[in-house]
Write a structure and sequence with these properties.
- The structure is a single chain.
- The protein has 268 residues and is mainly β.
- It has 3 helices and 12 strands.
- The protein is elongated and about 70 Å long.
- The N and C termini lie far apart (43 Å).
Length: 268
């Protein structure tokens, strides 16, 4: 089995380090805010989240394209899980665990006689998240710049069918493991009034994955790769106040990624 995704995550690791530095630099105001950003008083947070989005396109590359066709489009992905974090409002490190389903998609770009299904996906991710305040007003209104940057590793099972007769598969239909690494970036600008917050921003997801090469007969045809980059603007309404142990929100995304995401969390 050859599911080595190490090289595809190097850019994301660099981005995580950069965002960490930006989060720290944002805390250049008064002393209390600076103390939070240096983790002298870290806060533990936990939240549950769920999303249902449609990714515009996932492309098949190299030998996987030869077997199946060029791509699948309008990919409906549901994800639900838990995220735990440690840090301050400016900068928190998080780890998350989630289950995922890919149920429906447009298969019109697949070759005649080809089909694919994807099941039983599970993921783990790490990243940084924060909401630095860039301007305060005396009436309790703050201008904030929420961001979230993370890397997810997702694995599951797939069923691949190629009934053309000259297939690279061992048989007409083969089951095999698959895995992908995903880089997610979310950044926006919002107005927070006594905890109630409205945010507009941009969400980007970039994924790159492999299918187990045990499904093909020849090791010369084992480059079973897929990838997808999709982005879209979002609008979010929620509640987030440093003085409250509770936060929640709902986000709507349009464009290359379409759908909704909701979360509810507590801080200790």
């Amino acid at each position: 089995m050859k599911l080595n995704l190490k090289s595809t995550g190097l850019a994301s690791l660099a981005l995580l380090i950069s965002l960490s530095a930006l989060g720290s630099c944002a805390a250049v105001g008064d002393q209390p805010e600076r103390e939070k950003a240096t983790w002298r008083n870290p806060v533990f947070g936990a939240e549950v989240f769920a999303s249902a989005v449609e990714l515009g396109e996932i492309d098949f590359d190299d030998d996987l394209e030869t077997i199946l066709g060029s791509s699948i489009e309008d990919v409906e992905r549901q994800r639900a899980g838990v995220r735990v974090s440690l840090g301050s409002d400016y900068l928190r490190a998080f780890v998350q665990f989630f289950a995922e389903e890919i149920d429906e998609f447009d298969s019109s770009q697949l070759d005649p006689g080809s089909a694919v299904t994807i099941d039983d996906l599970f993921g783990i991710g790490i990243g940084v998240v924060g909401s630095p305040t860039i301007k305060k007003r005396a009436d309790g209104v703050r201008i904030v710049t929420p961001y979230r940057v993370g890397i997810n590793i997702v694995s599951g099972e797939g069923r691949f069918t190629d009934a053309t007769g000259a297939t690279l598969l061992k048989s007409t239909t083969e089951d095999g493991d698959l895995a992908y690494i995903e880089q997610e970036v979310s950044v926006g600008v919002g107005v927070n009034s006594r905890g109630f917050q409205a945010t507009i921003g941009l969400f980007l997801t970039n994924l790159s994955g492999l299918v187990d090469d045990e499904i093909v007969t020849d090791t010369d045809n084992d480059d079973l790769k897929f990838e997808g980059s999709n982005a879209g603007p979002y609008f979010e309404l929620g509640y987030s106040d440093p003085g409250s142990p509770m936060n929640f929100g709902v986000r709507g995304i349009v464009g290359g990624v379409q759908g909704v995401e909701a979360f509810f969390g507590v801080a200790l």
